[in-house]
Write a structure and sequence with these properties.
Layout lengths: L1 H10 L1 H4 L14 H9 L4 H12 L16 H15 L3 E7 L6 H14 L3 E6 L12 H11 L12 H24 L8 H16 L7 H16 L3 H11 L6 H8 L10 H14 L5 E6 L2 H4 L4 H19 L6 E7 L1 H5 L9 H7 L16 E3 L5 H19 L7 H12 L4 H4 L2 H17 L5 H5 L17 H11 L1
Parallel strand pairs: 1-4, 1-5, 2-3, 3-4
Helix pairs in contact: 1-19, 4-18, 5-6, 8-9, 10-11, 18-19, 18-21
């Protein structure tokens, strides 16, 4: 099998490789884009983030174009949604896959690409303290996390809200000054009263349409307040408005006392403000808003049945809004394991209104999935794709630690063969396990240059990454797998 995989490495690399470059001019997944990125030398800073993140079992937030393989069809399906969102529509997708199957990786790959296209991205992982709905601020906690992680192409690490608001003000001022200069032939001074009045008028016209949306009047009022405070150098009011937008006011009394606004963002209405932000961001010059929510399993784990159903009801509201055209320029992607989606007792499918909308039809199955359906099922990456990824990681590891790559095509193929010859690997191995094993192999070879890859792979010194192969299975399937591996 090693020889066969080595041969396939040369013939199938273009098909297996799905590389997102940061240039929107390149078609995602094209062979040309992949070759361009693979020829670029990975900066050491990015190489360190990639290797350390993957070694720890998490997805790096930078450097993904250097290591993205596979998932061509899944990414193309999501990017089709992005085109709809950019045109003024909305979209909602669930991504379903076992732990370590690449859900988070797919999210980050899409995140990188849509930011490059001019979208704003907010993302959050659910937890016991962060849900879609709650009676103790859990829904608001999710909103706050989304706002904290608000990212753009120029601020990919998050915290982009002040930058977005300041860019909006600068754009309005520039457009207004240009219009006045066209009328009078003279560029107005910043302190010109007529210029200030025209800017106020332009802002009022820009946000007028938002006042017809739910909570739009207060949202527009806060935007106007932010503009005037920033122009007057009133940093205290600017900070208070940002605090309001981030959902950090605990009571209406506090907000009314500091800002004169009798409404605050809370558990029940935070989603309405995401829709308002999506509309505002387009007016501010962006393409739209993409919301990414991971770890849906934390809703599945809620012990109280009523609380779970309330969260699923909130999910249904968001789904219906986007699919029925009630939201604009808004995309929502949620990720979870098969168990938290398909379990009829506690999962999303326990809520009949969602199950009837999301369940697969008769013809969708592994190998022939309908990727235009609301739920994208992540099938395992194949050996050829993992072979391509291993080659990329070997080059990045060598770049990080400053040595010449020591693994040839035959060594890479042997590693893949060893991994995929495990009992049950065909159906239960995940990219996370393979990647962690491979980085461990690279670390050992780097620290012990006297060892040969073939000897190490054939010895007891190389141990597989310890993972729970039943992650994401139903209890019955997990029991069957345990019996199979005894």
């Amino acid at each position: 099998m090693a020889g066969t995989l080595a041969a396939r490495h040369h013939t199938n690399v273009k098909d297996a490789h799905m590389d997102h470059t940061e240039s929107a001019a390149n078609t995602p997944g094209s062979a040309e884009a992949g070759q361009t990125t693979s020829r670029r030398q990975v900066p050491k800073r990015i190489a360190g983030v990639i290797i350390n993140s993957l070694k720890g079992g998490v997805v790096p937030r930078i450097g993904l174009p250097y290591i993205t393989v596979g998932r061509r069809r899944e990414i193309e399906a999501i990017l089709h949604d992005v085109d709809i969102i950019e045109g003024g529509g909305a979209a909602f997708r669930f991504i379903e896959g076992r732990y370590g199957s690449g859900k988070s990786f797919l999210l980050q790959a899409v995140r990188t690409h849509v930011m490059d296209r001019g979208f704003v991205v907010v993302d959050a992982d659910l937890s016991p303290e962060r849900r879609l709905q709650g009676t103790k601020g859990q829904g608001l906690a999710t909103y706050r996390e989304l706002m904290r992680n608000m990212s753009t192409k120029t601020r990919p690490e998050g915290g982009a809200l002040p930058l977005i608001l300041d860019r909006w003000i600068a754009t309005v001022q520039t457009d207004t000054a240009t219009a006045l200069a066209g009328e009078t032939g003279v560029m107005p001074a910043p302190d010109d009263p007529e210029f200030a009045a025209r800017v106020d008028q332009t802002i009022a016209e820009t946000i007028a349409s938002m006042q017809d949306m739910v909570h739009g009047f207060d949202f527009a009022r806060l935007l106007t307040m932010y503009y005037h405070a920033s122009q007057q150098g009133d940093d205290e009011t600017v900070g208070r408005v940002l605090k309001w937008f981030r959902g950090e006011y605990a009571t209406k009394t506090e907000a009314r006392g500091e800002l004169g606004v009798g409404v605050i963002i809370g558990d029940d209405n935070w989603y309405d403000y995401l829709k308002l932000f999506a509309d505002f961001l387009v007016k501010a010059g962006y393409r739209g808003l993409i919301v990414m929510i991971d770890e849906l399993v934390n809703i599945y784990k809620i012990p109280n049945a009523i609380s779970r159903q309330n969260n699923y009801e909130k999910m249904l509201t968001m789904y219906n809004d986007t699919m029925q055209g009630k939201a604009h320029h808004l995309g929502i992607i949620m990720c979870g394991t098969p168990q938290c989606v398909e379990d009829r007792h506690r999962g999303i499918y326990s809520y009949e209104a969602l199950r009837s909308r999301l369940a697969d039809g008769r013809f969708s199955k592994e190998g022939s999935r309908d990727l235009l359906a609301p739920v994208i099922h992540l099938d395992p990456l194949g050996p050829e794709e993992m072979l391509v990824l291993a080659g990329k990681l070997a080059d990045i590891h060598a770049r990080l630690y400053g040595y010449e790559p020591v693994l040839g095509d035959d060594d890479l193929a042997m590693f893949i063969r060893v991994e995929y010859e495990r009992v049950g690997a065909d159906s239960h191995i995940t990219p996370r396990e393979v990647i962690r094993d491979f980085i461990e192999l690279l670390d050992i070879l780097y620290q012990h240059p006297d060892k040969k890859p073939a000897d190490l792979l054939a010895s007891d010194e190389f141990s597989y990454a310890q993972g729970d192969p039943s992650d994401g299975m139903s209890p019955q399937a997990g029991e069957q797998y345990a019996q199979f591996t005894i």
